[in-house]
Structures are given as structure tokens and as C-alpha cells.
């Protein structure tokens, strides 16, 4: 990693851990959602096992939306985003580093908490294996695709609601394939096709999203 990209990454990490309340809010929201679902539908182990994968993925998507808005917010407010655009450094490379930092801060805690959530929702070991694979492949997709919408709305006041309206329909296919993979694992059926589709979506987003994010940021600045 070049010194510039190393500096961007370290700066984002420092800002994220300095604003501890914003860092903890998505994690607490995720835990509350997963905790409240069993209270609403009943504590039956079979019921929890059936809805568990969907609950975890819905909570992951909603909690990611809470932290998504800050991805470029600080850089936009202090003018550093404009300076990066005027510099000779390719903007798409900078935003790729920033998206990587967002994924590490937002979703690594979810991956670390996933064994506890799986036990809480009575998931079998096979279901948990499928769940963790979908989370590892699917959560970077949330960050890359979500960053495009963030780039379009970064200059708007209170763009969080618009961000949710833009992104929730886009994330529905990922939710369907991810929960389908875990359901297949619960029935001891092969779930490699769903994993392959999620992997293909991730590869496409990694290849195309940085350029789309850079274009969205330039549009929002004009």
C-alpha cells in the first residue's frame, strides 16, 4: 500500500475509533434487532431456527445503513474530499481504500458476534457454516454498493432517509440468495449455486463500484 493510501486508511480508522458512539450504534442496533425478534415471534427453537438467517441478514443490512452515511461525510465537510478530487491521485483508488476501512469497522464486529447470534437463534453447525460464508462474501457487497448511493447523497442535508430508500431495494437480491443458502444448508441440500451467485455479485462490485463511487462523488460536488 502506497504512503497516500496508507494515510487515508489510518485516518479513517482514527476517525472511526474517535467517534465511539457512532461506531457502537450499529452494533447495538444489530443486537437489539436480533434480541427482539424472538420476543415477538416466540421462543420456540424450531421457529427461531427457521427465521434466524433472515433476522441476522436483515439486522446486518439495517445496521449497515446506520453507519453508511458517515463514509464520506467528514471528508466532505472538512474539504478534504474536494482536495483529493483536485489531486492527481485516481479518486477510485482512494474510495476503494475508504470502502475497505468502512467494511472493517462496520462488519468485522458482526462476523465476530455471529457465533453468539447463531447459538441464540438455534442455528445448526451446518447452517452457521453457510451463514458465515454468505456474510464474508455479502457484507463487502453492502459496503461497495452502498458507497455509490452515499456518493450521490453526500452533499444533501439529512440524506439518511433517501439513502435507505435507494439501497434497501438494491439489497433485496443479496438477502434472498443469502437466506436461501442457509435454508438449503438446514435441509442438507447443496448451497454452492447461491454462494457462487453472491461471489459473482461481489466480484462485479469490486471491479465496477470504485469507478461508480468516484463518478457519483464528482456529480454530487457539481
TrEMBL record:
Transmembrane stretches in the record are: 21-39, 51-68, 100-121, 127-154, 161-182, 194-217
Cited Pfam families: CcmB
Keywords in alphabetical order, please.
Cell inner membrane, Cell membrane, Cytochrome c-type biogenesis, Membrane, Transmembrane, Transmembrane helix, Transport
Against PANTHER family, the record matches this protein to: CYTOCHROME C BIOGENESIS B-RELATED, HEME EXPORTER PROTEIN B
Function, please? Answer: Required for the export of heme to the periplasm for the biogenesis of c-type cytochromes.
Q: Which family does it belong to?
A: Belongs to the CcmB/CycW/HelB family.
Protein name as annotated: Heme exporter protein B
Q: Which organism is it from?
A: Alteromonas halophila
Amino acid at each position: 500500500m502506497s504512503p497516500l493510501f496508507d494515510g487515508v486508511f489510518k485516518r479513517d480508522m482514527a476517525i472511526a475509533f474517535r467517534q465511539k458512539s457512532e461506531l457502537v450504534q450499529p452494533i447495538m442496533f444489530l443486537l437489539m434487532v436480533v434480541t427482539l425478534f424472538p420476543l415477538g415471534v416466540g421462543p420456540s427453537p424450531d421457529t427461531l431456527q427457521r427465521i434466524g438467517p433472515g433476522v441476522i441478514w436483515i439486522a446486518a443490512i439495517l445496521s449497515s445503513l446506520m453507519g453508511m452515511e458517515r463514509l464520506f461525510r467528514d471528508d466532505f465537510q472538512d474539504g478534504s474530499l474536494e482536495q483529493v478530487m483536485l489531486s492527481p491521485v485516481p479518486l477510485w483508488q482512494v474510495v476503494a481504500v475508504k470502502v475497505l476501512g468502512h467494511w472493517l469497522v462496520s462488519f468485522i464486529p458482526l462476523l465476530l458476534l455471529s457465533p453468539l447470534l447463531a447459538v441464540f437463534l438455534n442455528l445448526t453447525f451446518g447452517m452457521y457454516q453457510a451463514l458465515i460464508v454468505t456474510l464474508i462474501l455479502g457484507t463487502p457487497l453492502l459496503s461497495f454498493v452502498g458507497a455509490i448511493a452515499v456518493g450521490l447523497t453526500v452533499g444533501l442535508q439529512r440524506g439518511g432517509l433517501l439513502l435507505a430508500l435507494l439501497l434497501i431495494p438494491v439489497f433485496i437480491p443479496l438477502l434472498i440468495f443469502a437466506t436461501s443458502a442457509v435454508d438449503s444448508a438446514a435441509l442438507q441440500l447443496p448451497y454452492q449455486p447461491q454462494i457462487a451467485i453472491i461471489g459473482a455479485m461481489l466480484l462485479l462490485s469490486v471491479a465496477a463500484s470504485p469507478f461508480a463511487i468516484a463518478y457519483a462523488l464528482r456529480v454530487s460536488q457539481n
